[in-house]
């Protein structure tokens, strides 16, 4: 981070691949909880690896800048991540902000994670360290778990394993399907993700 950047605002750059319901919850929280006044932080951009991601249109309607870095246009993960890092740097030139993975369905390379170390967060739809990876709700139901949930964590080179910032617990009800459980967990995700980001901003200072 440059000395000139030490006092610059903290840009929040949100990465999505689909609907972006978590992104929407974060944008709303930033406005309603006055993150700009309180933490000099604002949602600087929403970036997607999929040009058809529904969340892009919603973000644009809110006046949030959007960008697409299409992973299918790059020959390798490293080349895609390099382009993604450059896109993020356009919105956070001093590297003081937070990269927020919100339903972003790409595994990032260790080099990308290291470049943004300590300032990338992700939300995962399980009570980590249980059920890293995909199909978390189906696996929790099949395992006979009584509870499921979601976890906000710092991103490290090991997938779905970084330090936990926030969790929410959701009971698994008789007759639950992965879809009915996912819907209840998603409601909690929209509460814990803004809360975790606000704590990160408070700890990081203005
Ligand atoms: C969420 O359950 C999130 O935990 C997972 O992807 C799902 C979709 O999120 N990573 P969104 O609606 O695109 O934010």
TrEMBL record:
<dbReference type="InterPro" id="IPR036477">
    <property type="entry name" value="Formyl_transf_N_sf"/>
</dbReference>
<feature type="binding site">
    <location>
        <position position="77"/>
    </location>
    <ligand>
        <name>(6R)-10-formyltetrahydrofolate</name>
    </ligand>
</feature>
<dbReference type="Pfam" id="PF00551">
    <property type="entry name" value="Formyl_trans_N"/>
</dbReference>
<feature type="binding site">
    <location>
        <begin position="20"/>
        <end position="22"/>
    </location>
    <ligand>
        <name>N(1)-(5-phospho-beta-D-ribosyl)glycinamide</name>
    </ligand>
</feature>
<keyword id="KW-0658">Purine biosynthesis</keyword>
<dbReference type="InterPro" id="IPR001555">
    <property type="entry name" value="GART_AS"/>
</dbReference>
<dbReference type="InterPro" id="IPR002376">
    <property type="entry name" value="Formyl_transf_N"/>
</dbReference>
<feature type="binding site">
    <location>
        <position position="122"/>
    </location>
    <ligand>
        <name>(6R)-10-formyltetrahydrofolate</name>
    </ligand>
</feature>
<feature type="domain" description="Formyl transferase N-terminal">
    <location>
        <begin position="12"/>
        <end position="197"/>
    </location>
</feature>
<protein>
    <recommendedName>
        <fullName>Phosphoribosylglycinamide formyltransferase</fullName>
        <ecNumber>2.1.2.2</ecNumber>
    </recommendedName>
</protein>
<dbReference type="GO" id="GO:0005829">
    <property type="term" value="C:cytosol"/>
</dbReference>
<comment type="similarity">
    <text>Belongs to the GART family.</text>
</comment>
<keyword id="KW-0808">Transferase</keyword>
<feature type="active site" description="Proton donor">
    <location>
        <position position="124"/>
    </location>
</feature>
<feature type="site" description="Raises pKa of active site His">
    <location>
        <position position="160"/>
    </location>
</feature>
<comment type="pathway">
    <text>Purine metabolism; IMP biosynthesis via de novo pathway; N(2)-formyl-N(1)-(5-phospho-D-ribosyl)glycinamide from N(1)-(5-phospho-D-ribosyl)glycinamide (10-formyl THF route): step 1/1.</text>
</comment>
<comment type="function">
    <text>Catalyzes the transfer of a formyl group from 10-formyltetrahydrofolate to 5-phospho-ribosyl-glycinamide (GAR), producing 5-phospho-ribosyl-N-formylglycinamide (FGAR) and tetrahydrofolate.</text>
</comment>
<dbReference type="InterPro" id="IPR004607">
    <property type="entry name" value="GART"/>
</dbReference>
<dbReference type="GO" id="GO:0006189">
    <property type="term" value="P:'de novo' IMP biosynthetic process"/>
</dbReference>
<feature type="binding site">
    <location>
        <begin position="105"/>
        <end position="108"/>
    </location>
    <ligand>
        <name>(6R)-10-formyltetrahydrofolate</name>
    </ligand>
</feature>
<dbReference type="GO" id="GO:0004644">
    <property type="term" value="F:phosphoribosylglycinamide formyltransferase activity"/>
</dbReference>
């Amino acid at each position: 981070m440059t000395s000139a950047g030490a006092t610059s605002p903290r840009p929040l750059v949100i990465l999505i691949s689909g609907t972006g319901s978590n992104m929407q919850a974060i944008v709303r929280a930033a406005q309603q909880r006055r993150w700009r006044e309180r933490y000099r932080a604002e949602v600087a951009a929403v970036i997607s690896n999929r040009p058809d991601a529904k969340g892009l249109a919603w973000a644009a309607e809110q006046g949030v800048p959007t960008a697409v870095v299409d992973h299918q246009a790059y020959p390798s993960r490293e080349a895609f991540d390099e382009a993604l890092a450059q896109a993020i740097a356009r919105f956070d030139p001093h590297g003081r902000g937070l990269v927020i993975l919100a339903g972003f369905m790409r595994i990032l390379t260790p080099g990308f994670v290291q470049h943004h170390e300590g300032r990338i967060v992700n939300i995962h739809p399980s009570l980590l360290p249980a059920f890293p990876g995909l199909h978390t709700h189906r696996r929790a139901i099949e395992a006979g778990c009584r509870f499921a949930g979601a976890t906000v964590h710092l991103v490290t080179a090991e997938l779905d394993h970084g330090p936990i910032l926030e969790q929410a617990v959701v009971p698994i009800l008789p007759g639950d399907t992965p879809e009915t459980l996912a819907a209840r967990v998603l409601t909690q995700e929209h509460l814990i993700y803004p809360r975790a980001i606000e704590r990160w901003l408070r700890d990081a200072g203005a």
